[in-house]
Design goal:
- Chains B, C: GO terms for molecular function: ATP binding; ATP hydrolysis activity.
- Chains B, C: This is ABC transporter ATP-binding protein.
- Chains B, C: Keywords: ATP-binding, Nucleotide-binding, Transport.
- Chains B, C: It holds the Pfam family ABC_tran.
- The complex is a heteropentamer, with one copy of chain A, two copies of chain B, one copy of chain D and one copy of chain E.
- Chain A is α/β, with parallel strands linked by helices.
- Chain A has helices at about 30-40, 40-45, 60-65, 75-85, 135-150, 165-170, 185-190, 200-205, 215-220, 225-240, 245-255, 260-265, 275-290, 300; strands at about 15, 20-25, 50-55, 70-75, 90-100, 110, 130, 155-160, 175-180, 195, 210-215.
- Chain A has 14 helices and eleven strands.
- In chain A, strands 1, 2, 3, 4, 5 and 11 form a six-stranded mixed β-sheet that branches. A five-stranded mixed β-sheet of chain A has the order 8-7-9-6-10, with helices on both faces.
- In chain A, a hairpin with a 2-residue loop joins strand 1 and strand 2 (about 20-25).
- In chain A, helix 1 packs across helix 11 (about 245-255).
- The two termini of chain A are about 30 Å apart.
- Chain B folds into two domains: about 1-80 and about 155-270, 3-Layer(aba) Sandwich (Rossmann fold); about 90-155, no CATH class.
- Chain B has helices at about 45-55, 85-90, 95-105, 110-125, 140-155, 170-185, 200-205, 230-235, 240-255; strands spanning about 5-15, 20-30, 35-40, 60-65, 70, 80, 160, 190-195, 205-210, 220-225.
- By secondary structure, chain E is mostly helical.
- Chain E has a single domain (about 30-240), classed as Orthogonal Bundle (MetI-like fold).
- Chain E is built from eleven helices and no strands.
- In chain E, helix 5 (about 105-110) packs across helix 6 (about 115-140) and helix 8 (about 155-195) runs parallel beside helix 9.
- Classes of the chains: A alpha/beta, B alpha/beta, D mainly alpha, E mainly alpha.
- Chains in contact: A-D, A-E, B-C, B-D, B-E, C-D, C-E, D-E.
- Bound molecules: adenosine-5'-triphosphate (2 copies), nitrate ion and magnesium ion (2 copies).
- The site of one magnesium ion has 4 residues of chain C, from helix 1.
Amino acid sequence: GSSDGGGASDKNSSSGGTTEVKLGVIPIVDVAPVHLGQKKGFYKKHGLTLSMTAAQGGAAIVPGVVSGQFQFGFSNVTSLMIAQSNDVPVKAIANGVASTGVAGADFGAITVKKGSAIKSAKDLEGKKVAVNTLKNINETAVRESVRKAGGDPSAVKFVELAFDQMPAALDSGRIDAAMVVEPALATVKGQGATEIASSLVDVAKNLTVALYFTSNQYAQQHPDVVKKFQEATAESLAYADAHPDEVRQIVTTYTTIPAAVLAKVTLPKWPAEPNRASIEALEKLGEQDGLFKSTPDLDELLP
Amino acid sequence: MHASLVVSGLRKVYEGSGRRVEAVRDLTFTVDAGELVCLVGPSGCGKTTLLKCMAGLLAPTSGEVLLGGRRVSGPPPGMAFVFQEYGRSLFPWMRVGENVELPLRQKRLSRARRGELVADALESVGLADAARAYPWQLSGGMQQRVAIARALAYEPEVLLMDEPFAAVDAQTRADLEDLVRRLWRQRGITVLFVTHDIDEAVYLGERVLVLTASPTVVREQLKVDLPEERDQLRTRAAPRFAELRTRVYEQIQAAKRGEPVVEDAPPPR
Amino acid sequence: MHASLVVSGLRKVYEGSGRRVEAVRDLTFTVDAGELVCLVGPSGCGKTTLLKCMAGLLAPTSGEVLLGGRRVSGPPPGMAFVFQEYGRSLFPWMRVGENVELPLRQKRLSRARRGELVADALESVGLADAARAYPWQLSGGMQQRVAIARALAYEPEVLLMDEPFAAVDAQTRADLEDLVRRLWRQRGITVLFVTHDIDEAVYLGERVLVLTASPTVVREQLKVDLPEERDQLRTRAAPRFAELRTRVYEQIQAAKRGEPVVEDAPPPR
Amino acid sequence: MLRALFVVAFPALLFVVWWFASDDSTDVYWPPLRTILRTFPDVWTRARLRADLLPSLLRLLAGYTSAAVVGIGLGTVVGSYRKVRAVCEPVLEFLRAVPPPVLVPVIMLFAGIGDTMKIVVIASGCVWPVLLNTIEGVRAVDSVMSETARSYGITGPARIRSVVLPAASPQIFAGLRQALSIGIILMVISEMFAASNGLGFTIVQFQRGFAIPDMWTGILVLGLLGFLLSVLFQLVERRVLGWYHGLRDASRRSP
Amino acid sequence: MNAALGAAGLAAFLALGEAVPRLGIVKEQFFPPTSRIARALGDEITDSAFWTDLGDTLTGWALGLAIAVGAGVVVGVVVSVVPYLREATASTIEFLRPIPSVALIPLAVLLYGTELRSVLLLVVYASFWQVLVQVMYGVRDVDPVAEETARSYGLGTWARIRHVLWPTALPYVMTGVRLAAAVALILTVTAELVIGAPGLGARIAVAQTSQAVPELYALIVVTGLLGLLINTAARSVERYALAWHQSVRGEVTV
Ligand SMILES: Nc1ncnc2c1ncn2[C@@H]1O[C@H](COP(=O)(O)OP(=O)(O)OP(=O)(O)O)[C@@H](O)[C@H]1O
Ligand SMILES: Nc1ncnc2c1ncn2[C@@H]1O[C@H](COP(=O)(O)OP(=O)(O)OP(=O)(O)O)[C@@H](O)[C@H]1O
Ligand SMILES: O=[N+]([O-])[O-]
Ligand SMILES: [Mg+2]
Ligand SMILES: [Mg+2]
């Protein structure tokens, strides 16, 4: 398991020449590289020991990082931009995860029930579409898919539903479509659902979806630790990207995804660097949808 | 219509919380239909227990109670009970009038008839003014009279009263005694009356049953051969009255001392 | 050491839940230190109210109560109260022995002394066996005797008793009466005793106070000029006893009828 | 007068403490009270109250009422019959321990994702204090009172209505009181799932959107709502339990 | 006897859990039948990490409950006994009570991260009110005659609390503890679930995001069973502590 962050370790306690840092993550495939990097000794090589805590989402991770309870955290890009626009002192430091960039073969997609009359994103007008969080990256992505398909995104009825509840809701017809990511995507596909759009691809080519971040304060006070983390993470991302089988293997150590599902899961991309252009595109769309209180300062936010 | 009460071989043992009490050992007696019997006995001898068994509120350990030939296994209709713990037997969320009226509603009497019965009953115990008060706004004696009024308004065929006049003053007590005798004669009801007051037992009853101390049996059954028509002043002053009360007194004292029960004989004249 | 009780101009009006009752209108009387006074009056006339005011449990609407010259504003130490609602005044979560012992712990008596006092008190009311029972496992009369035992074990200087013998049988009652008189004489305590039994009032008291019906004032104060040494048989048979009881009876009946109060005079000899 | 002073003094003190303690806070999560109060009118506009507060209140009302009905009804039955209690208690205790955030997805399977689900979630949480207190209150009905009722043939519905429920009502009200605040809590939790409006939804959106002062105003609204509902509750209780308060106060008018 | 009836009730409940998906009322995929859940539960309990997590959850629960009950009882009694305190605090209590612990999660994390203390903060906050309100209603239930008796015998404030007020409030407190025990368990699991503190909740979170439905239900069953055990314990304490009370002694006599 990954939930071994309960130790009473101090922020920077050194043990055997390595610095222990706490990392707030979500127990999903996306964070496989850090687990893998930890296992492969990439962090150790840079003098870091990761202590990972799996939280449910940003509501717990961001305040944890801001208050210094965690040194680093994992968050989607839109959330980070929203946080920054609200003066939450966060700073992205390493790439997290990116879309595969291949329409029809991404790790997230808009899906409809088998036999649904909805054939394209345009047909979502007037329909009920589930996203995991309203006014966040997935809603932006769905809106863009609708727009690109020639529809009016403001005519879509969004409803907030956790990924894991989407298969049942879609199957029972309580929602018309769902913006799902892995492993729920593999599950709905197993139910015979069809993908009608790869929204993340629609936002931008090779969209950077999530980033590792720290607090401004920590970044200023411990540039050395941050640097080590960046280097080790870059190495881990590259390794994970190149070794999909090892990724599928490491995922079983911190999730309980059933083997049959895991085999069908489409892995994301883990480029070593964030794709600035894609983030700018995401920022534009977010701005257009009124997500931000003030325009996020990407120079300030991004590494 | 009115039914006799037969108690045969009644035994009641209380068990629980680390205490076992044989409250009643073996009681056998009969109250004829339309009879008024008074029950006396030392404190804690099992009078309340006996009454509750007779009312079908408590299951006897062995033995049985027959009412009109039918075994009592739950509260029979047409029977009213005046509890010794009068305070706790009134419902504090109901006003006095409602307390008296409640059983009548259960009898499905008309509203008008209920109102009449309630008013009459409260009037007869001297509480006509208190109908709108809550029980806890009344004095102890007044509460006890409410409980009596409730039983009277119910127009029972069998009336079981457990020390019903313990908390009222002497004058009220005398009035209530006369009320009970009057109702008994008018309505022909069967009454079993528990009291600690020997004079009261003799004055009221057609027969006085004396119980022994626990474990309880019937010590004596005394026929009260005073005239039907009784009067607080004259009856109580009668020499026969004095004889009877002395007899009962002696029996109770003997019961308390635990003397063996003598044969059932009428007191000497 | 023992203190007199002075009640002056006491008035108590109950208000609330849509009812206003002037329970006590104007009471003025004195109980001397070491005196045993009995209080009689019609049901609901305010005896309990008066006692609670004297015990500092109820704030009078006007007037005051002085104990040993000091105004009573809360329960004074060294005073014991036997409540009319004996059942509710015992704590159901404590065994009988614990109920009796509790006030003694408050007095910080040693464990041994407490045990002794509890045993003696229970013994004297005839409940030595029941120490380990819970109050709700006892009969009504037994519960009442527990409440009395608690007051006796407390060794009070002032004892207020509100119909304390209402639920016990005649023989036990006589025994308890003698017990109260004996303790009163031995310990020189001040006793105020409410009862409905006129004979009891005359037998027990040095003085009998008769209250009128509500709104209450003192109707009569009667000195009981019977010898100190009293005896259930002889005293009650004495002609003077009969005179006194008749006098009290008349006064109560007059009180109930609401006749004007006559001047304070001793009964004719 | 003095009483009124006491009633306002303590909250006022807390307010002052909060005001000054937070006054120069730069922590985004602990904004100065000043900022929160300044944000308040901008956030809780009339339109928002209609759009978010009203649907929440209606769900709360529906959920709370059904919980009260089910809790009192079931509690009376379970409390009255020892055997029924023995059969039901383990299952009830099992269900009671399941946390609403995990329970909601299960409820969604049966009740959909609309208002029905939210009402069921609210009811499923509120019902416990009412149920438990009703069971205990019914079990504790004074033996002399229930014997009195039995001896007068007051059985069945009349017994429940005239004896059992009034006797248990002080304790039932303790449960209803508890349920009120639990209802508000579950209203928030239910609106974290598949919602598009409501007080809980709004607060969670603020929280996820890092609009921290706005989130604090939402917490204030929840508190105010709880306070107002409890005042309302007390008015009802004073009426229904008038006899009880009278009885308990009877001798407390002492020095 | 009671245990047998309770087992029968549970068996019926489990049978229902088997029947609902089997009859197609919901899909097995989303609501696995009891037998499938049992299999997943079997797998769970052979995993040592499960027991560690269970231990963490129980620690958080027990500590949180103990603090909440202690504080709830003390505050409840003090507020009820000290004149004016009740009036003074009433509005504040009513204001704070409905604020959901879940809304406080960011604050808890801010203060204590994902440590036990963070869980405790949420658990104590939520279960404290359960006890407090029950204590306040319980204290109000003191019989006036009992109270007068105690006062007339000169029992001081402390003695009256101990000998009169406490026994009277105890049945209410017991109900409060039972309510609080469940709420504490709920909040322990919820807090672990949301903030990722180690324990059953974190395990549930993983099962949720992993689409591991039977495992998820197995864990839900574990929390339910915990609740059941806790209640059984509370009931036996009650049978001992409230032997004198109508609700318990009523069970003995007919
Ligand atoms: N609920 C109970 N549990 C255990 N024992 C009980 C219970 N009720 C009564 N007893 C015991 O049974 C015996 C008889 O009690 P009961 O109340 O019938 O006496 P009683 O004749 O009515 O006395 P009293 O004249 O004092 O009212 C007593 O010894 C009492 O202790
Ligand atoms: N708590 C109360 N609230 C309102 N009225 C009350 C209250 N207690 C007593 N009263 C009223 O005050 C009057 C006197 O009551 P109190 O109990 O003092 O009488 P008492 O002389 O003790 O009568 P009893 O001999 O019947 O016990 C009665 O009319 C009664 O209704
Ligand atoms: O406080 N709760 O979130 O239950
Ligand atoms: Mg009796
Ligand atoms: Mg009185």
